Amino acid sequence: MLEEEQPVENDIQPEPIELEIVYRDENLIAINKPAGMLVHRSWLDKYETVFAMQTLRNQIGQHVFPLHRLDKPTSGILFFALSSEVAAQFSPLFSGREIKKTYHAIVRGWIEESDTLDYPLKEQLDKIADKKASKEVEAKEAITEYTPLAKVELPYSTGKFPTSRYCLMELKPQTGRKHQLRRHMAHLRHPIVGDTTHGDGKHNRLFKENLDSHRLLLHASGLSFTHPITNENIEIKAGVDETWRRLMAEFGWDIESYQFH
């Protein structure tokens, strides 16, 4: 019988990731999740080796329990409970409308006025994980408030026009459907830049090739709620990463004016 092959030790170990903690009390903890990081291990993305839940657990030395979902390419506030009992108590807040969430995004084109989009969305089923689920799903209520904050016209062409226009948006989802903000902005024909599923490939390439931006430009920047244990009004903000900061500086958008602290 052949001996089992032993793994080769690598002398160069990757540097551990230090997550930014933006809120913590004896019951809850929130981080500013980097873009490209999964919340937890998933067989749907089996080649990933770094996860927010495991990284945070190692960082603070105790188990954490995720209270909501944040897509892998989206950055920003991600909340965890510090015990299963607290998770059971807090989860209904996230599934209901007691948690007020604010996102920022850069989208294709110019939006001139604030408005509310009430456009129901059908649940998106995964081809593998949901292959036995009924394909006849009803559309569910999906509501997003959106406000244009700033705009820019860049000297790059993606088609028949010599320039391309983009807009900085504040987005406040009133419901929590899967990919709601990405799907709603695509429905308005103003897809979020960097969205490889619902976005526009020409504009995604423009940002990659001309602006060195390789990520979905969607950031969970703010979150507020009434703490059910202490009754305190909690308001949390999470700053944007270097890609966002560089783009905003290049576009002449004052980062402090839009509460990107």
What secondary-structure arrangement, pairings included, does this model have?
Blueprint: E1 20-24, E2 28-33, H1 52-60, E3 65-66, E4 75-81, H2 84-95, E5 100-108, E6 115-118, E7 121-122, E8 139-140, E9 143-154, E10 164-173, H3 180-187, H4 201-211, E11 218-226, E12 233-237, H5 242-251
Parallel strand pairs: 4-11
Antiparallel strand pairs: 1-2, 2-4, 3-4, 5-10, 5-11, 6-9, 7-8, 9-10, 11-12
**What's the average pLDDT?**
87
How many structural domains are formed by the residues?
1
**Which fold name fills CATH's third level, the topology?**
Pseudouridine synthase
Shape designation? globular
Query: How many beta-strand elements?
Result: 12
Classify the beta-strand content into a percent band: 25-35%
End-to-end Cα distance:
61 Å
The number of helices is: 5
Can you give the helix content as a percent range?
10-25%
Any guess at the CATH architecture?
2-Layer Sandwich
The CATH superfamily bears the name: Pseudouridine synthase
The CATH class label is Alpha Beta
Q: Can you offer a commentary on this structure?
A:
With 261 residues, the chain is of the alpha+beta class. It has a single domain (20-125, 136-253), classed as Pseudouridine synthase (2-Layer Sandwich). Helix content is 19%, strand content 28%. A hairpin with a 3-residue loop joins strand 1 (20-24) and strand 2. The longest helix is centred in the middle third of the chain and has 12 residues, at 84-95. The termini are far apart. Mean pLDDT is 87; it is low at 1-13.
